Amino acid sequence: MALIKLRKGFDLNLKGKITSEIVAEASPSDTYAVVPDDFTGTIPRMEKKEGEKVAAGEALYHDKNNEKIKFTSPVSGTVKQVMRGDRRKILAVVIEPDYEGRSVTFDTRENPKALLLESGLWPMLRQRPYDIVPNSNARPRDIFITAFDSAPLAPSLKMILGDDEKYLSKAVEVLSTMTDGKVYMGCSHTEPITDTGAETNTFSGPHPAGNVGVQIANVKPVNKGEVVWTLDVITAARIGKLFETGKMDYSTIVAVNGPGVEEPAYIKATMGCSLHSLLDDRLSDNGKEPRIISGNVLTGVKETIDGHLHAPYRHVTVINEINNKDEFMGWASLSPKKYSIYRVFTSGFFGRHKEVDLDAKLNGGERAIVLSGEYDNMLPMDIYAEFLIKAIIAFDIDKMEQLGIYEVAPEDFALAEYADTSKLELQRIVREGLDKMRAEMC
Questions:
Q1: Residue 391 sits in which domain range?
Q2: Helix, strand, coil: what percent of the chain each, to 5?
Q3: Coil, helix or strand at residue 269
Q4: Residue 331 DSSP symbol
Q5: Are residues 116 and 204 in the same domain?
Q6: Is residue 184 assigned to a domain?
Q7: Model confidence over 174-225: pLDDT tens digits?
Q8: pTM, 2 dp
Q9: CA 126 to CA 123: how far, in whole Å?
Q10: Domain with 87 in it: what CATH number?
């Protein structure tokens, strides 16, 4: 087991950590939802209509470009609503549960790839390059599993995994049939997972050490013309469990935390549940408007209390909206409470790693890129991040290829986006660049 030490990056130490591993039960959810935008690279085409009955594990829709890729219901019930946006784009498929417990039993004698496609587990995988749901006809060079999440307030994946760790060996066995290379597993040096059959590497260092893209870059980088698949250890356990039991497991343990949560806790729920069922009676009564994020503060999706839990279905963070819009002296403030990851305030010398209660304020507007190396300091990959961003904005394909566009995903730039003095939406820029590249090259 190799230990890889990463020095670049930063651990954003937010208030609102979970201090107990006791798992509470979520309140009953009135509705569940599957959100197509959570699965980049697919276009939904409905198989069920509003008002039709559906069992857990039954297909709601498939990918328009590949009918084999199915998206299944997490519960039995009725398709209550197909929410649509501009140009009738499907925003979400909402299911009203009937609590009858009807579920599909899958034939585990099927070809492994066919079973993953039919069960709805396939969309939980990702492909590099482009960070999309994999093409079912491709055969990856290698498959990478990340077994920890280093994002701010992220839950312990090993704790969420629990007894399902026993299914990892089966998952690795199944995944090994789909690649001519190896199945790699990246673990935290403090929570190693062994004896799974995968080639294990342990990582130490600040966020984004838990990002699978960072792990790939430090183990076996992706070159032009190569394809690798990625997934997290929770999805791997679901794969193993499916092949052992013939049932798809839609249960999940969600970390509900952040400065805006009264009692941060782990909560057992079902994928796609309503945020009401997770947050009822847990929001802080501090007179401030909460910002609810399905996911972590760097890569999550802003939601309302009436929204639903988004993939990968394991984290909800609540922070406060802007506390003080017209702050006295602004960036020139000498207050020791003023926070920055750089040493530009007194807190940078005495309290940079203390727990902080940050709100949604941007602290400035968009401005020109300054080549100061700050992106590189937040990204432990062998690429010139600032030059890559400039190449993406200019859509210079040759430079994008030379600078490592095939290795990255938007989440890899999330920390750099937070630290960016230029206030650019780096994740959006990278996502648009990847989409344009895919349209141009595929």
A1: 374-441
A2: 25, 25, 50
A3: strand
A4: G
A5: yes
A6: yes
A7: 999 999 999 999 999 999 999 999 999 999 999 999 999 999 999 999 999 9
A8: 0.94
A9: 7
A10: 2.40.50.100
